[in-house]
Design brief:
The structure is a single chain. By secondary structure, the protein is α+β, with helices and mostly antiparallel strands. It contains 5 helices and 7 strands. 30% of the residues lie in helices and 32% in strands. A hairpin with a 6-residue loop joins β6 and β7 (186-197). It starts with 6 loop residues before the first strand and ends with a strand. Bound molecules: coenzyme A. Residues 5, 30, 104-107, 112-118, 140, 157, 160, 163 line the site of coenzyme A (COA).
Amino acid sequence: MTTPPLRLDTLSGDALRAALPGLSRLRLTVFAEWPYLYDGDAAHEARYLAAYAADPGAAAVVAFDGATPVGMATCQPMAGAGGPVAAAFRARGLDPARFCYFGESVLLPEYRGRGAGVGFFAAREAQARRLGLAAAAFCAVVRNPNDPRRPAGHVPLDGFWRNRGFAPRPDLSCVFSWKEIGDDRETPHVLSFWLKDLA
Ligand SMILES: CC(C)(COP(=O)(O)OP(=O)(O)OC[C@H]1O[C@@H](n2cnc3c(N)ncnc32)[C@H](O)[C@@H]1OP(=O)(O)O)[C@@H](O)C(=O)NCCC(=O)NCCS
């Protein structure tokens, strides 16, 4: 028997706001794992995701199993994104106004390998095109391949991202701070960008 595809819905504004508690839980669950090891708190998650609901150009593509959200991916015009992202682009002479920033993709492990990740990219690229943006960008944490916390057999997503048409830009990076599991304070983490021309 083949597994049916998950339903993907692109949510913005009030529809996104209504879904936020479930989406916060997804982020906390998936980002607690390698390579992010994120020890997040619900209050920060609520503020972070509420910014997407407040931006009319932003969207979350949500994967549903029945009525239950099991994964999501966000996107937003980079010009409206807070934090260090737009500054990193300006520092390299790139105009943030040309880019759609893909914030994250998270999918519960038991739902992986069924095409939702591919669908997250297709739906976010469609949103970027609707907004008239010329390119897409996301960033991923840079880890030492010899990090002893790396689970045996972990496969990096680089190949998956290349297959979606993105190219790494090791010269383009930013720093986000978060508390890792087992730590008592936030530490800085380098995230490196991947870019795709949507023209
Ligand atoms: C990133 C992530 C969302 C990808 O999710 P996924 O649903 O497993 O990805 P997919 O199933 O769409 O794609 C995986 C592969 O299976 C293939 N695939 C399997 N079944 C498929 C189907 N039914 N339809 C389309 N593609 C399918 C895809 O083509 C892809 O292979 P390819 O790269 O050779 O083309 C998931 O791995 C994840 O949550 N990772 C942890 C969090 C993380 O690190 N996120 C990234 C940084 S924010």
